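Could someone model iron/sulfur cluster with this protein?
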Amino acid sequence: MIKSGEIILNENDINPALDLFTEIEKLKKEKNAIILAHYYQEPDIQDIADYVGDSLGLSQKAEATDADVIVFAGVHFMAETAKILNPGKKVLLPDINAGCSLSDSCPPHLFKRFVDSHPDHLVISYINCSAGIKALSNIICTSSNARAIVEYLPNDQKIIFAPDKNLGSYINKVAGRNMLLWNGACMVHEIFSVSKITKLKERYQDAKVIAHPECEESLLSIADFIGSTTQLLCYISKDPCKIFIVATESGILHKMQQSAPDKILISAPPDNACACNDCPHMKLNTLEKLYLCLRNESPEILMDEQLRLAAKVPIDRMLALSRELNIV
Ligand code: 13P
Ligand code: SF4
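Reply:
Sure, complex below.
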């Protein structure tokens, strides 16, 4: 039981009189905590976060922070990456069930068999994977640096790329490689309807389609620009075009609209009756859960030390390569 003024609260009760923004700010100072949030989080969480970014930016912030507590408003693999980089800090995830369909599409015991059957291949894994997959990999990458990392390696280097087949085949195409791809995908980026987007383009003839490389090849082939979430955000601010059809999770429209208020942003329509492109995993986190996890210091990410050390090696390589190649 926790006492808050006159009201006795259970662990998950919130005094309805509280202003959660003020309370979260107070708790942050009290606990020397930092809130890192991905662009796919709900707007309130993005607005209270100390840093909002893509997977690379979030890993770089997690590596550099001197806070004692990291609240990671994102999904499990992201918070786990922060813990791998910061074993001495408390890493909290507002909803411990916030997983990732892409990460789940690559179970470590099956991936190990795949890797073992190709001993002459270097293993590059997209950061959207579990610590078990990272521990089986040589280098981690994100959508911001995947192309640069692959191009940094000699042309004749044999490579396994996991778990996202869409990002992998996009890199194969633009970098002229023939990497072996694991057959994984993100449930959010595979639902967009190319025919509905094409119809939208007929209606808004000046609109540009921008897409995340986790989307399928059929969509990427009609995109005017392809990039990580941060790259998409920067593109909208800099490009003179006024209307954009955005093929990625809808949470990023919040930051896009803040950074380019004069632009018209249309969420790319999915191939189903649902009008939103929300990631059900990302959206498990709420402002209430964020407040509770900071107050209760739970749920916390805890890891086996041997696994942490093995998973850290390829993440450190990515961060070092990103510094060397000047990718932020
Ligand atoms: P980035 O933000 O790194 O582009 O990744 C998108 C994503 O799918 C995160 O889950
Ligand atoms: Fe995973 Fe896709 Fe959700 Fe990102 S958007 S967390 S890749 S399911």
